[in-house]
Design brief:
The complex is a heterodimer of chains A (112) and B (316). Chain A is an alpha/beta fold. Chain A contains two helices and eight strands, in the order ααββββββββ. In chain A, strand 7 and strand 8 form a beta hairpin. The N terminus of chain A is likely disordered. The chains are: A alpha/beta (112), B alpha/beta (316). The structure holds copper (II) ion (CU). Copper (II) ion (CU) binds next to loops of chain A.
Chain lengths: 112, 316
Protein backbone atom coordinates (compact mmCIF):
# COMPACT_ATOMS: atom_id res chain seq x y z
CA UNK A 1 0.00 0.00 0.00
CA UNK A 2 1.29 3.43 -0.91
CA UNK A 3 0.27 6.52 0.98
CA UNK A 4 0.84 10.09 -0.08
CA UNK A 5 1.19 12.28 3.01
CA UNK A 6 0.63 15.52 1.19
CA UNK A 7 -2.33 16.89 3.10
CA UNK A 8 -2.16 20.51 4.20
CA UNK A 9 -2.27 21.17 7.93
CA UNK A 10 -3.22 24.80 7.68
CA UNK A 11 -5.82 25.26 10.40
CA UNK A 12 -4.10 23.89 13.52
CA UNK A 13 -0.65 25.18 12.52
CA UNK A 14 -2.10 28.63 12.28
CA UNK A 15 -3.72 28.15 15.68
CA UNK A 16 -0.44 26.99 17.21
CA UNK A 17 1.38 29.86 15.54
CA UNK A 18 -0.94 32.33 17.19
CA UNK A 19 -0.59 30.60 20.56
CA UNK A 20 3.18 30.84 20.35
CA UNK A 21 2.99 34.62 20.21
CA UNK A 22 1.24 34.66 23.58
CA UNK A 23 3.19 34.32 26.86
CA UNK A 24 4.20 30.71 27.47
CA UNK A 25 2.02 29.95 30.55
CA UNK A 26 -1.17 30.87 28.67
CA UNK A 27 -0.41 28.51 25.81
CA UNK A 28 -1.64 25.33 27.44
CA UNK A 29 -4.74 26.94 28.92
CA UNK A 30 -5.88 28.80 25.82
CA UNK A 31 -5.55 26.32 23.00
CA UNK A 32 -5.33 22.58 22.68
CA UNK A 33 -5.52 20.31 19.66
CA UNK A 34 -7.11 16.88 19.33
CA UNK A 35 -5.95 15.18 16.17
CA UNK A 36 -8.10 12.69 14.33
CA UNK A 37 -5.98 10.14 12.54
CA UNK A 38 -6.61 6.50 11.66
CA UNK A 39 -10.13 6.74 13.11
CA UNK A 40 -8.71 7.69 16.51
CA UNK A 41 -8.90 10.86 18.63
CA UNK A 42 -5.42 11.74 19.95
CA UNK A 43 -5.16 12.34 22.82
CA UNK A 44 -8.26 10.31 23.60
CA UNK A 45 -8.43 11.92 27.06
CA UNK A 46 -7.44 15.53 27.52
CA UNK A 47 -7.59 17.72 30.63
CA UNK A 48 -7.88 21.48 30.12
CA UNK A 49 -8.57 24.57 32.20
CA UNK A 50 -11.94 26.34 31.88
CA UNK A 51 -11.93 28.76 28.96
CA UNK A 52 -9.71 26.55 26.81
CA UNK A 53 -10.49 26.30 23.14
CA UNK A 54 -9.98 22.78 21.84
CA UNK A 55 -9.49 22.39 18.12
CA UNK A 56 -10.35 19.04 16.55
CA UNK A 57 -8.38 18.47 13.37
CA UNK A 58 -9.15 15.73 10.86
CA UNK A 59 -6.00 14.26 9.34
CA UNK A 60 -7.79 11.24 7.83
CA UNK A 61 -8.75 10.74 4.18
CA UNK A 62 -12.35 10.28 5.32
CA UNK A 63 -14.70 12.76 7.04
CA UNK A 64 -15.39 12.62 10.75
CA UNK A 65 -17.89 14.49 12.91
CA UNK A 66 -17.31 15.41 16.55
CA UNK A 67 -20.40 15.11 18.79
CA UNK A 68 -20.67 15.54 22.57
CA UNK A 69 -22.51 12.64 24.22
CA UNK A 70 -24.71 15.14 26.05
CA UNK A 71 -25.30 17.24 22.94
CA UNK A 72 -23.28 20.21 24.28
CA UNK A 73 -21.43 20.53 20.98
CA UNK A 74 -21.56 19.10 17.49
CA UNK A 75 -19.25 19.87 14.57
CA UNK A 76 -20.16 19.80 10.92
CA UNK A 77 -18.71 16.94 8.90
CA UNK A 78 -14.97 17.56 8.89
CA UNK A 79 -13.32 16.65 5.61
CA UNK A 80 -9.57 16.09 5.37
CA UNK A 81 -7.73 19.05 6.89
CA UNK A 82 -10.89 20.63 8.30
CA UNK A 83 -10.97 21.76 11.93
CA UNK A 84 -13.65 22.38 14.53
CA UNK A 85 -13.04 24.52 17.60
CA UNK A 86 -15.07 24.55 20.81
CA UNK A 87 -14.36 26.59 23.93
CA UNK A 88 -14.94 24.73 27.20
CA UNK A 89 -16.13 27.19 29.82
CA UNK A 90 -17.71 24.87 32.42
CA UNK A 91 -15.85 22.39 34.58
CA UNK A 92 -16.71 18.72 34.15
CA UNK A 93 -16.20 15.65 31.98
CA UNK A 94 -17.27 15.96 28.35
CA UNK A 95 -17.37 12.62 26.57
CA UNK A 96 -17.66 12.81 22.80
CA UNK A 97 -17.72 10.49 19.80
CA UNK A 98 -17.67 10.56 16.00
CA UNK A 99 -21.17 10.97 14.58
CA UNK A 100 -20.13 8.99 11.50
CA UNK A 101 -18.08 6.30 13.23
CA UNK A 102 -19.49 6.11 16.76
CA UNK A 103 -16.95 3.52 17.90
CA UNK A 104 -14.50 6.48 17.89
CA UNK A 105 -14.66 8.06 21.34
CA UNK A 106 -12.80 10.65 23.40
CA UNK A 107 -13.13 12.76 26.54
CA UNK A 108 -12.29 16.31 27.54
CA UNK A 109 -11.99 16.95 31.25
CA UNK A 110 -12.35 20.60 32.21
CA UNK A 111 -10.82 21.31 35.64
CA UNK A 112 -9.57 24.56 37.17
CA UNK B 1 -3.22 -12.88 -6.26
CA UNK B 2 -4.43 -15.57 -8.64
CA UNK B 3 -6.35 -14.74 -11.75
CA UNK B 4 -9.41 -16.93 -12.30
CA UNK B 5 -10.69 -15.41 -15.51
CA UNK B 6 -10.68 -18.80 -17.19
CA UNK B 7 -13.99 -20.59 -16.70
CA UNK B 8 -12.54 -24.02 -17.36
CA UNK B 9 -10.03 -23.43 -14.59
CA UNK B 10 -12.81 -22.45 -12.20
CA UNK B 11 -14.75 -25.57 -13.05
CA UNK B 12 -12.71 -27.98 -10.99
CA UNK B 13 -12.04 -26.02 -7.84
CA UNK B 14 -13.52 -26.65 -4.44
CA UNK B 15 -16.27 -24.50 -2.97
CA UNK B 16 -13.87 -23.13 -0.39
CA UNK B 17 -11.38 -22.18 -3.05
CA UNK B 18 -14.14 -20.65 -5.13
CA UNK B 19 -15.14 -18.46 -2.21
CA UNK B 20 -11.56 -17.26 -1.92
CA UNK B 21 -11.53 -16.50 -5.61
CA UNK B 22 -14.70 -14.51 -5.24
CA UNK B 23 -13.16 -12.47 -2.49
CA UNK B 24 -9.69 -11.99 -3.91
CA UNK B 25 -10.07 -12.13 -7.67
CA UNK B 26 -13.76 -11.32 -7.97
CA UNK B 27 -13.99 -11.87 -11.68
CA UNK B 28 -17.64 -12.70 -11.81
CA UNK B 29 -18.11 -15.86 -9.83
CA UNK B 30 -21.76 -16.84 -9.89
CA UNK B 31 -23.44 -18.12 -6.76
CA UNK B 32 -26.91 -19.46 -6.50
CA UNK B 33 -28.78 -19.81 -3.26
CA UNK B 34 -30.59 -23.09 -2.92
CA UNK B 35 -32.34 -23.81 0.36
CA UNK B 36 -30.09 -21.28 2.03
CA UNK B 37 -26.91 -22.94 0.86
CA UNK B 38 -24.86 -21.13 -1.76
CA UNK B 39 -23.71 -23.31 -4.63
CA UNK B 40 -21.26 -22.00 -7.15
CA UNK B 41 -22.21 -21.85 -10.79
CA UNK B 42 -19.85 -24.66 -11.62
CA UNK B 43 -21.16 -26.99 -8.94
CA UNK B 44 -24.74 -26.23 -9.88
CA UNK B 45 -24.11 -26.67 -13.56
CA UNK B 46 -23.98 -23.99 -16.19
CA UNK B 47 -27.36 -24.95 -17.66
CA UNK B 48 -29.24 -24.43 -14.41
CA UNK B 49 -27.46 -21.17 -13.77
CA UNK B 50 -28.25 -19.97 -17.25
CA UNK B 51 -31.88 -20.89 -16.66
CA UNK B 52 -31.89 -18.83 -13.47
CA UNK B 53 -30.57 -15.95 -15.51
CA UNK B 54 -33.03 -16.24 -18.37
CA UNK B 55 -36.30 -17.39 -16.80
CA UNK B 56 -36.24 -14.96 -13.93
CA UNK B 57 -35.04 -11.42 -13.63
CA UNK B 58 -31.91 -9.77 -12.44
CA UNK B 59 -31.38 -6.66 -10.44
CA UNK B 60 -28.17 -4.84 -9.90
CA UNK B 61 -26.55 -3.62 -6.70
CA UNK B 62 -24.30 -0.60 -6.77
CA UNK B 63 -22.80 0.88 -3.63
CA UNK B 64 -20.52 3.46 -2.07
CA UNK B 65 -20.07 5.74 -5.06
CA UNK B 66 -18.78 8.51 -2.71
CA UNK B 67 -19.23 11.26 -5.28
CA UNK B 68 -16.96 14.09 -4.18
CA UNK B 69 -14.16 11.81 -2.96
CA UNK B 70 -10.89 12.94 -4.54
CA UNK B 71 -8.16 11.65 -2.23
CA UNK B 72 -5.13 9.50 -3.09
CA UNK B 73 -7.06 6.20 -3.00
CA UNK B 74 -9.01 7.40 -6.07
CA UNK B 75 -8.79 11.06 -7.15
CA UNK B 76 -11.56 10.43 -9.71
CA UNK B 77 -14.40 8.63 -7.92
CA UNK B 78 -16.80 10.28 -10.34
CA UNK B 79 -15.06 8.62 -13.31
CA UNK B 80 -15.14 5.13 -11.84
CA UNK B 81 -18.89 5.52 -11.19
CA UNK B 82 -19.30 6.47 -14.85
CA UNK B 83 -17.31 3.37 -15.83
CA UNK B 84 -19.50 1.18 -13.63
CA UNK B 85 -22.67 2.61 -15.16
CA UNK B 86 -21.20 2.05 -18.63
CA UNK B 87 -20.63 -1.61 -17.81
CA UNK B 88 -24.17 -1.95 -16.46
CA UNK B 89 -25.64 -0.43 -19.61
CA UNK B 90 -23.61 -2.85 -21.71
CA UNK B 91 -24.91 -5.96 -19.90
CA UNK B 92 -26.45 -8.47 -22.34
CA UNK B 93 -29.40 -9.04 -20.00
CA UNK B 94 -30.78 -5.76 -18.72
CA UNK B 95 -31.40 -5.64 -14.99
CA UNK B 96 -35.04 -5.06 -14.01
CA UNK B 97 -33.90 -2.27 -11.68
CA UNK B 98 -31.01 -1.22 -9.49
CA UNK B 99 -30.50 -0.83 -5.78
CA UNK B 100 -27.96 1.58 -4.33
CA UNK B 101 -26.81 0.59 -0.84
CA UNK B 102 -25.68 4.03 0.23
CA UNK B 103 -22.81 6.49 0.40
CA UNK B 104 -24.03 7.93 -2.86
CA UNK B 105 -22.09 11.08 -1.96
CA UNK B 106 -19.02 11.71 0.14
CA UNK B 107 -20.23 14.79 2.05
CA UNK B 108 -24.02 15.06 1.39
CA UNK B 109 -23.49 18.18 -0.72
CA UNK B 110 -26.18 19.19 -3.20
CA UNK B 111 -23.75 19.17 -6.14
CA UNK B 112 -22.57 15.68 -5.17
CA UNK B 113 -26.15 14.36 -5.05
CA UNK B 114 -26.83 16.06 -8.38
CA UNK B 115 -23.75 14.57 -10.05
CA UNK B 116 -24.62 11.10 -8.76
CA UNK B 117 -28.24 11.39 -9.91
CA UNK B 118 -27.14 12.48 -13.38
CA UNK B 119 -24.65 9.63 -13.80
CA UNK B 120 -26.75 6.86 -12.21
CA UNK B 121 -30.08 8.14 -13.53
CA UNK B 122 -28.59 8.56 -17.01
CA UNK B 123 -28.66 4.79 -17.47
CA UNK B 124 -32.46 4.82 -17.37
CA UNK B 125 -33.05 2.16 -14.71
CA UNK B 126 -35.34 2.47 -11.71
CA UNK B 127 -33.04 2.85 -8.72
CA UNK B 128 -34.05 2.08 -5.13
CA UNK B 129 -31.78 3.83 -2.65
CA UNK B 130 -30.93 3.60 1.02
CA UNK B 131 -28.63 6.19 2.60
CA UNK B 132 -25.11 5.65 3.87
CA UNK B 133 -23.71 7.70 6.75
CA UNK B 134 -22.04 9.98 4.22
CA UNK B 135 -25.46 10.86 2.76
CA UNK B 136 -26.93 12.27 5.98
CA UNK B 137 -24.23 14.74 7.08
CA UNK B 138 -25.77 17.85 5.56
CA UNK B 139 -26.48 20.70 8.00
CA UNK B 140 -30.08 19.51 8.30
CA UNK B 141 -29.20 15.95 9.36
CA UNK B 142 -30.45 14.01 6.37
CA UNK B 143 -32.90 16.43 4.78
CA UNK B 144 -30.76 16.61 1.62
CA UNK B 145 -31.15 12.85 1.16
CA UNK B 146 -34.84 12.69 2.05
CA UNK B 147 -35.67 15.62 -0.25
CA UNK B 148 -34.30 13.58 -3.12
CA UNK B 149 -35.05 9.97 -2.20
CA UNK B 150 -37.51 10.07 0.66
CA UNK B 151 -40.73 10.05 -1.39
CA UNK B 152 -42.91 7.11 -0.37
CA UNK B 153 -40.59 6.11 2.47
CA UNK B 154 -41.05 6.06 6.24
CA UNK B 155 -38.90 7.58 8.98
CA UNK B 156 -35.31 8.18 7.88
CA UNK B 157 -36.06 6.61 4.49
CA UNK B 158 -37.02 2.95 4.95
CA UNK B 159 -39.57 1.19 2.71
CA UNK B 160 -40.49 -2.07 1.02
CA UNK B 161 -41.72 -3.07 -2.42
CA UNK B 162 -42.64 -6.17 -4.41
CA UNK B 163 -41.08 -7.20 -7.69
CA UNK B 164 -41.82 -10.45 -9.53
CA UNK B 165 -42.82 -12.26 -6.36
CA UNK B 166 -39.84 -11.09 -4.34
CA UNK B 167 -40.31 -8.84 -1.30
CA UNK B 168 -37.63 -6.13 -1.08
CA UNK B 169 -36.98 -4.20 2.12
CA UNK B 170 -34.72 -1.13 2.19
CA UNK B 171 -33.54 -0.34 5.73
CA UNK B 172 -31.70 2.67 7.17
CA UNK B 173 -29.03 1.95 9.80
CA UNK B 174 -26.96 5.15 9.59
CA UNK B 175 -28.94 7.64 11.68
CA UNK B 176 -29.14 8.27 15.44
CA UNK B 177 -25.83 6.49 15.95
CA UNK B 178 -24.98 6.15 19.63
CA UNK B 179 -21.61 6.83 21.28
CA UNK B 180 -19.58 3.65 21.30
CA UNK B 181 -22.11 1.88 19.11
CA UNK B 182 -22.36 0.47 15.59
CA UNK B 183 -25.01 0.87 12.92
CA UNK B 184 -28.49 1.42 14.31
CA UNK B 185 -31.99 0.57 13.08
CA UNK B 186 -33.95 1.84 16.07
CA UNK B 187 -37.25 0.73 17.63
CA UNK B 188 -39.49 2.69 15.24
CA UNK B 189 -38.01 1.00 12.18
CA UNK B 190 -38.03 -2.44 13.80
CA UNK B 191 -41.73 -2.03 14.65
CA UNK B 192 -42.40 -1.02 11.06
CA UNK B 193 -40.47 -4.06 9.78
CA UNK B 194 -42.46 -6.44 12.01
CA UNK B 195 -45.66 -4.96 10.64
CA UNK B 196 -44.43 -4.95 7.03
CA UNK B 197 -43.52 -8.64 7.12
CA UNK B 198 -46.94 -9.68 8.49
CA UNK B 199 -48.43 -9.61 5.01
CA UNK B 200 -45.60 -11.61 3.42
CA UNK B 201 -45.96 -15.37 3.02
CA UNK B 202 -43.19 -17.62 4.37
CA UNK B 203 -42.40 -18.90 0.88
CA UNK B 204 -41.80 -15.45 -0.57
CA UNK B 205 -38.08 -14.76 -1.12
CA UNK B 206 -37.01 -11.70 0.79
CA UNK B 207 -34.18 -9.34 -0.09
CA UNK B 208 -33.16 -6.90 2.63
CA UNK B 209 -30.74 -4.12 1.76
CA UNK B 210 -29.09 -1.53 3.99
CA UNK B 211 -25.82 0.36 4.04
CA UNK B 212 -23.93 -0.95 7.08
CA UNK B 213 -23.68 -4.76 7.26
CA UNK B 214 -26.43 -6.42 9.32
CA UNK B 215 -23.95 -8.96 10.66
CA UNK B 216 -20.95 -8.34 12.88
CA UNK B 217 -18.13 -8.40 10.35
CA UNK B 218 -15.63 -6.44 12.45
CA UNK B 219 -17.14 -4.40 15.30
CA UNK B 220 -13.68 -3.00 16.14
CA UNK B 221 -14.03 -0.97 12.94
CA UNK B 222 -17.74 -0.35 13.39
CA UNK B 223 -18.64 -2.97 10.79
CA UNK B 224 -21.91 -4.22 12.19
CA UNK B 225 -25.35 -3.07 13.38
CA UNK B 226 -26.24 -2.98 17.07
CA UNK B 227 -29.86 -4.11 16.77
CA UNK B 228 -29.52 -6.29 13.65
CA UNK B 229 -30.36 -9.41 15.68
CA UNK B 230 -33.86 -8.03 16.28
CA UNK B 231 -34.40 -7.51 12.56
CA UNK B 232 -33.06 -10.97 11.74
CA UNK B 233 -35.32 -12.61 14.32
CA UNK B 234 -38.27 -11.13 12.40
CA UNK B 235 -36.94 -12.84 9.25
CA UNK B 236 -36.53 -16.31 10.80
CA UNK B 237 -39.75 -17.79 9.53
CA UNK B 238 -39.06 -17.15 5.85
CA UNK B 239 -37.61 -19.72 3.47
CA UNK B 240 -35.13 -17.48 1.69
CA UNK B 241 -33.62 -14.26 2.95
CA UNK B 242 -30.81 -12.41 1.22
CA UNK B 243 -29.21 -9.44 2.98
CA UNK B 244 -27.24 -7.04 0.78
CA UNK B 245 -24.98 -4.36 2.24
CA UNK B 246 -22.20 -1.97 1.28
CA UNK B 247 -20.07 0.20 3.60
CA UNK B 248 -16.97 -1.99 3.80
CA UNK B 249 -15.96 -1.61 0.13
CA UNK B 250 -15.14 -5.29 -0.36
CA UNK B 251 -16.95 -8.57 -0.84
CA UNK B 252 -17.83 -10.63 2.20
CA UNK B 253 -20.34 -13.45 2.32
CA UNK B 254 -21.82 -15.50 5.09
CA UNK B 255 -24.67 -18.00 5.25
CA UNK B 256 -26.53 -18.52 8.50
CA UNK B 257 -29.58 -20.73 8.39
CA UNK B 258 -32.07 -19.28 5.92
CA UNK B 259 -30.14 -16.01 5.55
CA UNK B 260 -27.38 -15.25 3.07
CA UNK B 261 -25.40 -12.09 3.76
CA UNK B 262 -23.43 -10.41 1.02
CA UNK B 263 -21.55 -7.11 0.89
CA UNK B 264 -20.73 -5.38 -2.38
CA UNK B 265 -17.70 -3.53 -3.61
CA UNK B 266 -17.55 0.24 -3.88
CA UNK B 267 -17.22 2.05 -7.18
CA UNK B 268 -15.00 4.67 -5.49
CA UNK B 269 -12.16 3.20 -3.43
CA UNK B 270 -11.20 -0.04 -1.70
CA UNK B 271 -10.89 -0.50 2.06
CA UNK B 272 -8.56 -2.95 3.83
CA UNK B 273 -9.62 -6.41 4.93
CA UNK B 274 -10.68 -6.46 8.60
CA UNK B 275 -7.77 -5.91 10.96
CA UNK B 276 -5.12 -5.73 8.23
CA UNK B 277 -4.47 -1.99 8.56
CA UNK B 278 -4.34 0.66 11.27
CA UNK B 279 -7.85 1.80 10.35
CA UNK B 280 -10.64 1.11 7.84
CA UNK B 281 -9.78 4.26 5.88
CA UNK B 282 -9.45 4.38 2.09
CA UNK B 283 -6.76 1.97 0.85
CA UNK B 284 -4.38 3.36 -1.73
CA UNK B 285 -3.13 0.71 -4.14
CA UNK B 286 -0.98 1.04 -7.27
CA UNK B 287 -3.08 2.67 -10.00
CA UNK B 288 -3.11 -0.48 -12.12
CA UNK B 289 -4.80 -2.44 -9.34
CA UNK B 290 -7.58 -0.02 -8.42
CA UNK B 291 -10.21 -1.15 -10.91
CA UNK B 292 -9.75 -4.78 -9.87
CA UNK B 293 -10.96 -3.77 -6.41
CA UNK B 294 -13.99 -1.72 -7.49
CA UNK B 295 -17.22 -3.10 -8.91
CA UNK B 296 -20.90 -3.95 -8.74
CA UNK B 297 -23.04 -6.99 -7.98
CA UNK B 298 -25.77 -8.52 -10.11
CA UNK B 299 -28.44 -10.69 -8.50
CA UNK B 300 -30.47 -13.17 -10.55
CA UNK B 301 -33.84 -14.35 -9.26
CA UNK B 302 -35.19 -17.56 -10.76
CA UNK B 303 -38.88 -17.31 -11.57
CA UNK B 304 -41.08 -19.34 -9.27
CA UNK B 305 -38.16 -20.49 -7.16
CA UNK B 306 -36.35 -19.29 -4.11
CA UNK B 307 -32.92 -19.36 -5.69
CA UNK B 308 -30.96 -16.17 -6.03
CA UNK B 309 -27.60 -15.97 -7.74
CA UNK B 310 -25.12 -13.21 -7.04
CA UNK B 311 -22.49 -12.26 -9.58
CA UNK B 312 -19.79 -9.84 -8.51
CA UNK B 313 -18.00 -7.99 -11.30
CA UNK B 314 -15.04 -5.65 -11.09
CA UNK B 315 -14.31 -2.59 -13.19
CA UNK B 316 -11.02 -4.13 -14.38
CU1 LIG C 1 -15.41 9.15 12.13
Amino acid sequence: MIRFPTRPLVGPLAALGLAMVAPAPLQAADAQVVKIDNFTFTPAALTVKPGTTVTFENDDDIPHLVVANDGAFRSKALDTGDTYAFTFTKAGDFAYYCGLHPHMQGKITVAP
Amino acid sequence: MTNHDDDSERGGISRRHALECMIWAGTGVLWTMSGGVPVSLNLLGAAQAAEAMTTGFTFLQISDSHIGFDKAANPHAIDTLKEAMGKIQALPQKPAFMIHTGDITHLSKAAQFDNAAEIIGGAGFDVHYVPGEHDVIDDDNGKAYLDRYGKGTKGAGWYSFEQNGVHFVGLVNVVNLKAGGLGNLGPEQLAWLADDLKAVSASTPIVVFAHIPLWAIYPEWGWGTDDAAQALSLLKGFGSVTVLNGHIHQIMQKVEGNVTFHTARSTAFPQPAPGTAASPGPMTVPAGQLRGLLGTSSVAVKQGGQELAIIDSTLA
